Amino acid sequence: VLDTQELRASFLLDELFFTGEVNLVYTDLDRAVVGSIIPTNSALELGNHNALKSDFFCQRREIGILNYGGSGTITVDGTAHAIDKHDCLYIGRGSREISFTSASAEDPAVFYLVSYPAHAEYPTTKATRADANRVELGSKDECNERTIFQYIHENGIKSCQLVLGFTEFKPGSIWNTMPCHTHERRSEVYCYFDVPAGHRVLHMMGQPQETRPLWVADRQVVLSPPWSIHTGCGTASYRFCWAMGGENQAFTDMDRVEIADLR
């Protein structure tokens, strides 16, 4: 049984975002790579990683990127894509040269990245917040009224296996993904953002009969194995980016857990 520190060390990325740097973490969840890029005065390039054993980062991978910060640009093989706050860029397998810049060093872009292996090539594609498919879920009475913004999914930006979007809440709602679920066919990564200073999200994980808490701050990432639930509630309003990879891309493919069955 893991204690609190061991649980955090195993499933929480609590220091991922560093201004002026590219920071990547290679995980054992379906070989996902999670990272951040925050350029300031000069461009930052996405280099290769020895753990990939490839000639370049996207030789056998695809990437989804969501911008949490100011305006910026992502250049992929010579084509520049202007990326504003909450814009998404999908970068397909085979893309060789990828670089990042910010329009302002004082208000830099904050690029959050999730990458999974890819066995097929799809074109690099941008989507704005207005382009996203919106799904309204929850209710005021259950304190989980929220809007899901779907970017990379089976009916949106095409990908090999990556699915990505983000969720934001209506005033007074704090619960995400409740009732909760597991999905044995996919791993999932949650990155909480826009969590006010001094506040936290109480994220719950584990098997439904053996749940464990993680107190999560702004721009911290929870790695969720296929056997684990993933749900949480905030002490204030927040957003979170969700990304998945695995057997399929069906957003509704999940094994629901009834609230009364949680332990």
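[next item in queue]
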Amino acid sequence: MLRHLKVLHLASFSGNIGDNANHAGARAQFAQNLSFQLNFTELEIREFYWKQRFFDDDFISYANQFDLLLIGGGNYFELWVESSRTGCSIDLPPELLAKIRCPVLFYGLGVDAGQGVPDICLQRFRAFMDCILADDRFFVAVRNDGAVDTLEKYLGEYYSRAVSAVPDGGFFVTPAAHSLPELENSPRNIVINLAGDMLDTRFKGGQNFLSAEGFFKEFAGCLEQLLTANHDLNLVFVPHIFRDYAPISSVIEFLPDNLRRRRVAVAPYLVGTVGGDRQFSLYQQASLVLAMRFHANVCPLGMGVPTLGLVCYPQISHLYRELNLSALAVDVTAAGFSATLFDQSQLALSGQHVDGHVITAALLSNIKATHKKIDAWLLRQF
């Protein structure tokens, strides 16, 4: 009989549906691979961003009521949070970590240098990592988005070797069947995700590089070409957060009126577990996915759907490199990207794409290996 563990799960559960897919897939794998049954109590990390909660003694007291504190998955080892005592979103300095009595699993965390690495953040993050790597009460598993390489680049080989790497849970999400009116007008659909946050970071402009407006215009031109070449094809735009509606609207503005009125649909803005499941069922039924956001790439790849990454942030190119699929990651910040994107899209739509089942098999092997380490660690704790 499996031992039950009360788990405080600190992560994001509302606001970005990619997080919901990540948790659903990871929990399914935990259930298959661990010698324990995990019973989760969810704690929304955005409450800390909103200053409704704080990493303080009250948080420690609450965490100590559980058998295990699980932090992640998510992009919480960012290296630019100067207001944090650890240089990242997990603001638990050594003096607070010392008060936590239960084991802590840092799971599936991104190590992100995409918005810079101030010296003070790097200094604090190193001290934080030194603390958690020196104590067997803590287990650290970073996700497969270049996190290990980023650790080695900024902290050194000792740190990159001391952590485990784990595939993001989104690779293993299995959406339920849903009624999807967005797909009713065509047997073939390109499902598209465009990220509406950090546009100044994603599209810096300058010589030979596109501004956000330049991307919108060129991307719309590529979509027009694809629709003209494939008369049975429609477009479905899927927002993951509310800001994604801005780039969706901007691209649609550049499409010819006859196409945007007849061959374009936009999915509703939904949040939470049920909303996320509904949106990812759209990805599951796509003929092709074109995606900017991390989980808009991860989830369809895991489901075996032909997917092309729209690279305007380093995390996405790192993801495809780790999967040995760099040819499927198209840099959309450089002027003229649409020629490559059109050619790659046509190949995928004609059935010439990587077999997703091969990807999933390799990732399953990887996650089982890491979960075996986590299981051994948990058995030492209990």
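[queue empty]
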